[in-house]
Amino acid sequence: MKRSELCVVGEEEMIAPFRAAGMDVYPLSKNPNEDIESLIKNDYKIIFFPEDILKNLSGIFTRLKGQTFPLLISLPSSKGKGESVERIKEIIKKAVGIEVYWEEE
Amino acid sequence: MKLNVPPTRMSLLRLKKRIKIAKRGHKLLKDKFEELMRHVYGLVDEIKLLRKNVDKKLREVFYLFSISDHVKDKEYVDVALSYTTKKISLEINTRRILNLKVPVFKKSVSGSLINYGFYQTNALLDKAMLEMEELIDVLLELAEKEKTLELLSEEIERTRRRVNALEFVVIPNISETIQYIKLKLNEAERGNLTRLMRVKETIRK
Hints:
The structure holds two protein chains of two kinds. By secondary structure, chain A is of the alpha/beta class. Chain A is built from four helices and four strands. Chain A has helices spanning 12-20, 32-41, 58-63, 83-96; strands at residues 6-10, 24-27, 46-50, 71-75. Chain B contains three helices and two strands. The interface between A and B is large, with 37 and 53 residues.
């Protein structure tokens, strides 16, 4: 069977639904940076992770700059405070040069 | 700033050629820049919507899951879920936007999602699983769009730097140098002329 190319890392309660849906899931260890690194080595193309570890991964993001794969996508999580939206905002700001209006609810 | 070239006719010709190329490159890069920006503006709105959607759906799924855990024993739910035969496989392709390779996914699903009996689990779990199915689609779309945006933004930065370098450094430098060489050549021409006139004058005397 062909191995799935997308996986989810996160805390147990977060990854349970994804496991049920047939995705590869991995629990998060003390060192999220290493977790993600090893998943990249394992040749996963898309990795979803909870947004609260986003700040630990800046090294990986800089290294992968300009590459199409793998894709690292942060998901909103219980501990997160909207970091993923912040990141997107940052990217857009860099591209456009100004803050593009992002409506808050 | 003036370039360091000898003020001769040769270098004047060479510089004229260079400025022509620089101007053409500048125009092309500027067009590319505008095209990239157009893509970004389109993506921003889409991502905004998708993020909101993902947020809502995730919350819903987690909520349903946690309730179904509580209503029945957690063990039952875990056992039921471990029977899933669903496998998601992805067909990953790339699409080109200008010179960028951006990812495109095609999802194919095998096996069924709900693979447990009705006994020992409740309807909430079923609902959660169905929601999950939709969520995955949205997630993939989001992943695709976000990566595209990221790549675009990097390319825009690079292009902007090039456009600016051409517009504010290369082209002004060359045109300043051309101006300088022209003046220098004119001056030499005038010098020559007066010298000739003076020589002619002395010969006549």
